[in-house]
User: What shape does this take?
Amino acid sequence: MNAVKDVFRPGLLQGRHALITGAGSGINKRIAERFAEHGASISIIGRNPEKCFTAALDIEGRGGQAAGFAADVRHYDALEAAFKHARERFGPVDICIAGAAGNFVAEAAAMSSNGFRTVIDIDLVGCFNTFRAALPMLREEGADLLAISAVQSSLPMSAQAHVCAAKAGIDMLVRSLSIEWGPRGIRCNAIAPGPVAGTEGMDRLAPDGERSWKRLLEGIPMGRAGERDEIADLALFLCSGAARYINGTVVAIDGGQVNLGSLPFGSMLMESLKPAKA
Ligand code: COA
Assistant: This one.
């Protein structure tokens, strides 16, 4: 395993089993790698079997412990079956991260009911399914649940009504579960990233590359995109003993974007929907 070059002491998650949905790519994959660097066994759950297995092999190739299990978070029975296999492989679950998400850029008026529901199903219902199916498999005292929300949960944004509604729902779900499951020693939190470079999500949201990025960075006080490592570090902190009294919180990690509003980001998305000029 590569030496851990970070501010955390090595082996922070030694002996823990982390189950992460959507970890075949992007932010969630980096979280999976980071947690493995810190000694956790990783179960990667995703709807694309090849992506899951490849991500697990990558981690194993770097000396970590990981396995991929294919399931779509929209399908409860398949998800539950995958989690059972994961528990057979690595034991009771200590950490469960609901990271699977779907997004596309579309105005509400151009979106079908099914288009809206698809994102609600993947993001919000998928988050509930993930935590609900994981519940009986958790090592209860000290188990950590973490949802990957987004800046859209608190910032209304053009061409993102479906995502804003789904992510706002996730924030309230996490806060509600923290009340119901806190007494059982289960903490439930969320992180709300702004734009993160090098992810499929941002490839979809910033289709014009540099031009789109320049525009949306005007809405971020720190003037730059987030990095996958920065999101993984926050997840690591929230799933470590250092965060043992943090429960029911949504932590923004967006360079201050929520304080400036969504106008630059939203206008860039709306522009990307206009037909290209000849
Ligand atoms: N604009 C408007 N509607 C769209 C759309 C777009 N750009 N993309 C998809 N939809 C609609 C479809 O038309 C369909 O509705 P309909 O049946 O009324 O026509 C509905 O959404 C479902 O689309 P479908 O492609 O069948 O869903 P899927 O389950 O295969 O894919 C998505 C889910 C739509 C979220 C797809 O974008 C996806 O696979 N995303 C996963 C990866 C991702 O988004 N990663 C980034 C996470 S931040």
